[in-house]
Design goal:
The protein is mainly α. It has a domain of 36 residues. It contains three helices and no strands.
Length: 54
């Protein structure tokens, strides 16, 4: 959150506000990996989660 606040200070007007509902998510091993790379590594296709029953 500190990095986002600092970026906002440098980039925008002085009246920014923190919105707790808009926090960054942590994606663990998928951090910095594209959706295509995740799908390739999982053996799934982009539509498989929509067409495969749990």
């Amino acid at each position: 959150m500190a990095r986002a606040r600092r970026t906002a200070e440098l980039a925008g007007p002085a009246d920014q506000q923190v919105v707790p509902d808009l926090m960054e998510w942590q994606y663990g091993g998928c951090e910095g990996v594209t959706t295509a790379e995740i799908l390739r590594g999982s053996g799934l296709s982009a539509g498989s989660r929509l067409t495969t029953a749990p």
